[in-house]
Amino acid sequence: MPSDPLKIAIKGTTQEHLQIEDVVDNVVILKDGSCAMVMQLSSVNFDLLSEKEQSSLVFAYGGILNSLNFPIQILIRSNTKDVSAYLNNLKTAEEKQINPLLKQRIQLYRKFIEETVKKNEVLSKSFYVLVRFSVLELGIKSANKQILASLLPMKKKSQVLPYDKNYILEKAKANLEPKRDHLMRLFARLGLEIRQLATKELIELFYKIYNEENSINQKIQTLNYTAPMVSTKK
Q1: Does pLDDT of 232 surpass 80?
Q2: CA 181 – CA 184 distance, rounded (Å)
């Protein structure tokens, strides 16, 4: 029985347009053979610092950027924060509180949060640092294959990797891990926590980026993180 041509046309369409080939061993492999490591940074409430502390922090941050001999990317993501669970916890605490004064304090605080949320969106910001491994660092062979890939039809471009995936991963990790460790030492001097995202976290991050609206009501399930699956929360 012939397959439905409509289903064939739709199948894999989104994947073909994404630059990501795979996420393996905490490394993002792109379709052109280049790779990236992603690290998440903690934040500092800059406005609460004194003027002297602010100047010192800016100077130290500038010193970090000027000391690097390799490029980095800095990504800042802003998401609307859902505080409904927090408000429910406050309401539960209010109902359980026996002390009348504390009960009143919790009630006033809960109403303050509710009014704040009604007037302003509550945003949470996440900060990431990315280091890249260029496909050109794999050698002349990879450059030739990229030229060949650029000449192929769009449907076949995603099938071309300059080398075996395991070989690319090995070379990328040897190149990226020293850079990662160096960045961790530098940002730690600013009092910032920095850590590399694991495979599961990378899959979840990219899913949220490409499915921003749906990700609120969905969760990701993976089996050894080789075949990401999405299911709706019950």
Answers
A1: no
A2: 5
